[in-house]
Amino acid sequence: MLVTSIKRWLAPPVFEGAEEKTRQASLINMVCITSLAFTLAVMVGALMGGKTPVSTLIIDLVACAVTLQFRHWLRSGRVVLARFGMVIFGLVFITAVTADIGTIRTPTAAILLFWVLMTGLIFDRRGIVIGTIAASMAVLGLIVAENAGWLRPPFYDVGVTQWVTFTALFGFTSGLTYYINQGTKSALALARKEIEQRKQAEQSLKAANEELHLRVFEVQRLQVELHEQAIHDPLTGLYNRRYLSDALAREIIQAKRANSSLTFVMADIDHFKFVNDSYGHLAGDEVLVQVASLLKKHARGSDIACRYGGEEFLLVFPGTSLELAHKRAEEIQQNCAALSIQHEGKNIAVMLSFGVAAYPDHGQQWEQIIVKADKALYQSKCNGRNQVTIFRDEEFPT
């Protein structure tokens, strides 16, 4: 119980949420306890020696009382007051004891060196500078006072008092060195821990960034796939009607700028309903796939091949005249007629009918031109199918 009480009394105060204030309090608490122990040890040595002036003992008692007051301020949260009071009183105390002994040539004067160290611990670099100057001025003042005879007669007797003083001084030095060393080790350990945590954080961040990049890449890839799926027919792989609005508007603008033609070719599989009814829808799908493959094969890089709906297809030829588009459509027609599509051991013949219209001959808007290409396609159907028809205004009066 007693040991616990002593430990509690010696422990520095802790201020929640104020790390710097707690650190300062711990440092000042250490200085107070060390100073108190040092002063008490010197007093014991002085009493054992029996030659120390009574005034010096009184100064030591005052120092103990003032140091206890500093600790009281410290525990009540007045850390700044305790810090400045400790530094100022320490200088006054050491100077007073030295003056009372009558000479600076005593162990007491050497304590100024450790007062400078203590001031540096409490106030960092600023404390070292100010402490060094203040201690230097104190020594200079004592030298002037001693040489002028203003101090009492020097007390040069040596004995137990000096031995205790030196021993306490050595202990104070060792304790201060140990404290600084432990503080340095703790700081280095904390720094190493922080470095390790930063490395781990950087590695985690790097891994997270890599994962994010992968996710972004995956999202972009999926967006591309979804876009491609949205604008392509899933069965034939050709563009679908959703793709046409933007694409054809863009092609019309480019044709206007280049002052060139833009030809639309509508194609329809002849008797496709008969294929579905006779051979089944799987056979019909195979026919659609084979025709789409044929259209892709005859499409140039700048051309657009689209499944317009059902068994109907649209080909768009930029920079192609009506005559050339007619010739290309006939080539596709002939190649389609040569197709041999096998389904369950049966050969399915496929024929295509075409209707051709162009910008600017048949309109300024792509919707108008498609309507006229579709009318030309209808004319091919009416004229016996398996042929190519160019839209003629005189043949299709409005």
UniProtKB/TrEMBL annotation:
Keyword Transmembrane helix found: yes
Enzyme class: transferase
GGDEF domain residues: 260-393
A GO molecular function held by the record: diguanylate cyclase activity
Reactions it catalyzes: 2 GTP = 3',3'-c-di-GMP + 2 diphosphate
CDD domains referenced in this protein's UniProt entry, alphabetically: GGDEF
EC number: 2.7.7.65
SMART domains named among the record's database cross-references: GGDEF
Keywords: Membrane, Transmembrane, Transmembrane helix
Transmembrane region(s): 27-48, 54-73, 80-98, 104-123, 128-148, 160-180
InterPro entries: Diguanylate_Cyclase, GGDEF_dom, Nucleotide_cyclase, Rev_trsase/Diguanyl_cyclase
SUPFAM superfamilies per UniProt: Nucleotide cyclase
PANTHER family per the UniProt record, alphabetical: DIGUANYLATE CYCLASE DGCM-RELATED, REGULATORY COMPONENTS OF SENSORY TRANSDUCTION SYSTEM
Full protein name: diguanylate cyclase
